[in-house]
Design brief:
Blueprint: E1 2-8, H1 14-27, E2 32-38, H2 54-62, E3 67-76, H3 80-92, E4 97-102, H4 110-113, E5 118-120, H5 129-148
Length: 154
Amino acid sequence: MRIRILWEGKTKDAHLRAVQADLAERISHFTRLAVEEIPRLRRAGSAPKSGLSSTERDLLEKLRGCTKVFLDERGREWTSEEFAEWLGQETLRGTRELVFLVGGPDGFSAAFRKEADLLMALSRMTLTRDWARSLLLEQIYRGFTILRGFPYAR
């Protein structure tokens, strides 16, 4: 299984960029990982009230056939163990590519959210997108260590 993480813009904080790079390297020992920066999905007034913007449509076309997980405050919350179990089940199901999307400060449009295979919340607390990126990477790494029975600091 390949994991792709797509997020809008760059991580501003150099320390968080270093943490993200370290975690991405650790994850790559378990599975193929790609982290990609994408342009903003929504611009004020760019999407019709009931439809997708052209940027959203283009991105969905590129992700056809992938399992799409959108990070969203309305999404499902898991413990680390539950997330690890889900990650393992996706592998057993034969999921070829798992894509996590981290939106920008405005989140995702309602029409775009409907296109997700899963909405996932990292926390009920509000996180900046830079911290959300870091936490997502950490939880993916933790999920693989749980699945492999590796010790992980608590």
